[in-house]
Amino acid sequence: MSFAGDVKTQLCRVPLSRKCCAQAEAYGVLLYCNTFSASQVRIVTENGAFAQRLPALFKKAFKLTFDRLPQGEGKQIFVLDDPEKLAVLYQSFGTSPRALALHLNFAVVEEDCCRAAFLRGAFLAGGSVTDPRKGYHLELATSHQSVSREVLALMRELDQAPKSAQRKGNAVIYFKQSEQMEDFLTCVGAPLAAMEVMNAKLERDLRGKVNRQTNCDAANLDKAVEAAMTQVEAIRRLERAGVLVTLPDKLREAAALRLAHPEDTLAQLAQRCDPPITKSALNHRLRKLVELGRK
Predict the structure, then answer these.
(1) Going from the N-terminus, what domains does the chain have, and what CATH number goes with each?
(2) Contact assessment for residue 96 and residue 90, using Cβ atoms and an 8 Å cutoff
(3) Which of 1, 51, 70, 290 has the fewest C-beta atoms lying within 10 Å of its C-beta?
(4) What count of other Cβ atoms lies within 10 Å of the Cβ of residue 98?
(5) Whole-model pTM above 0.85?
(6) Is 61 left (phi over 0), alpha (psi -120 to 50) or beta?
(7) Cis before residue 191, ω within 30 degrees of 0?
(8) Bridge-based pairing state of the strands 127-129 and 76-80
(9) In this predicted model, what pLDDT tens digit does every residue of 200-215 receive, in sequence order?
(10) d(CA 156, CA 163)
């Protein structure tokens, strides 16, 4: 099952306890489903858990049954086209089937629990989310432009900060930040999915940190190897010119140690001196040898 399918399955485990919340969730489903008009309600889903929840949801919210239920497997299609049942829906939400455009009735979502239920229904019917291990994107899409603008305002009242766009005739509300996705999923009743998003982000951040550290270590190693090769070359030049034997004991000791241990770091080489010296002191001696070798 995809991550989006798993999220919807988690949401469908939320109990249908209060009638007001059931109506709010059904309201979200209707405003974000395939068709909600004066002549028909048509809800299409491929999620088995959502398909099982829909009859119970509409029974709890409106005491209604669907006129047509899914046949076979694959896409599950639920249809309401009985005029009396459609009238019950419009009356429940204080709207008229003759209205030119659907709008969100804020009276249905006054309570925090009902707002969360409404957004849960909207996501179940018209939402999608990417696998957080691949990227961060969660969206709600509806063909009702006015509804989308009003839902955007509702979400901002809940301290959520989605963005909006138009895509193929649909109005889309979306999140691109992992923290915002976590907040939304927790709000609508999928805290386990929110934790998966959080864990994926931590894993990605950790992997990025390790890669940066590895790249940094590799760059430092390259610099150290290059510096050691330069030092060995300068010492060999001094040796061939007969200058090395004329240098002070400290410089000759540093030269002998570098030739004997070309792979050692400055810290390791400094500890081999007799007596051991600081890394800074050894670095100063090696720089002096390089300078003399160039001359």
Answers:
(1) 3-198 (3.10.28.10), 215-294 (no CATH)
(2) yes
(3) 1
(4) 7
(5) no
(6) alpha
(7) no
(8) unpaired
(9) 888 888 887 888 888 8
(10) 10
> CB 137: neighbour CB atoms within 10 A?
15
Torsion of CA 85, 91, 97, 99, to 10 degrees: -170
DSSP string, 100-127: SS----GGGG-SHHHHHHHHHHHHHHHE
Position 109, amino acid: V
pLDDT at 225: 82
Query: Which range, of 22-36, 182-196, 227-241, averages the lowest pLDDT?
Result: 227-241
Give the contacts of 115 (CB within 8 A, at least 6 positions apart). Answer: 24, 109, 154, 158
Alpha helix ranges (H) inside the chain: 3-11, 19-32, 48-62, 83-92, 112-126, 145-157, 178-188, 191-240, 249-260, 266-272, 279-294
